[in-house]
Amino acid sequence: MHKPMTMLRRNVSKSAFFGVVGLTLAINCFGRTDAAPCAANSENRQLDYWLGNWKIGAAGSGGNAHSTVSLSLDKCLVVENWDGGRGHAGQNIFGYSADDKSWYGMFADNQGRVHVFTSGKVSSGSAEFEGTSRGPNGETVLNRVKVTRLSPTKVEQTWEKSSDKGTTWNLVFRGEYSRAND
């Protein structure tokens, strides 16, 4: 009985060893070849004007509304963590796809809302994202978020909604971001 157990241990050890070697080879073969492709890609850097800590002035927000915008995933994603100051908080994520040369975004908050933006146009100092969601009665709503650099210390974000496929827009949020002392 001792021999089969020893052989089993050897087989398990060999399997573990070859599993680790195979995983290492797969990572090296299929992993990215450039250490930081997004850091050097000018398209990925187009929202860098928004990076930092911000105070948000907006109608209906608490006096302590704030936002932190940072980079994630080797500088491939722009992530905004915001707090409206009255218990309403959320996260916005934006990323550039080198595959189809398009920007995408997602909004999620602590009230269970999630919006996906499948159409993004970004240039230095200006960004616009659009995507559909459902209204309270199941109707399709078109959402448009804009992030515009007003100065090195000010950014404006607006959110508009349209229930007529973009013919008319209703402003639902306008926030003026002022750079906070870091």
Describe this structure as you would to a colleague:
This protein is an alpha+beta fold and 182 residues long. It folds into 2 domains: 1-31; 38-179, Beta Barrel (Lipocalin). Helix content is 18%, strand content 48%. It contains 2 helices and 10 strands; from the N terminus they run H-H-E-E-E-E-E-E-E-E-E-E. It has a 10-stranded antiparallel barrel with strand order 1-2-3-4-5-6-7-8-9-10. A hairpin with a 5-residue loop joins strand 3 (77-83) and strand 4. The longest helix is centred in the N-terminal third of the chain and has 29 residues, at 2-30. Residues 5-32 have low confidence and may be disordered.
List the helices and strands and how they pair.
Elements: H1 2-30, H2 37-40, E1 52-58, E2 66-72, E3 77-83, E4 89-97, E5 102-109, E6 114-123, E7 126-134, E8 140-151, E9 154-162, E10 170-179
Antiparallel strand pairs: 1-2, 1-10, 2-3, 3-4, 4-5, 5-6, 6-7, 7-8, 8-9, 9-10
Distance between the termini: 68 Å
Radius of gyration: 23 Å
Roughly what is the average pLDDT, rounded to an integer?
Answer: 83
Largest sheet: 10 strands, antiparallel, barrel
Low-confidence stretches: 5-32
CATH superfamily of the largest domain: Calycin beta-barrel core domain
SSE pattern, N- to C-terminal: HHEEEEEEEEEE
User: Could you name the CATH class of the largest domain?
Assistant: Mainly Beta
Instruction: Count helical runs.
Output: 2
Tertiary shape? globular
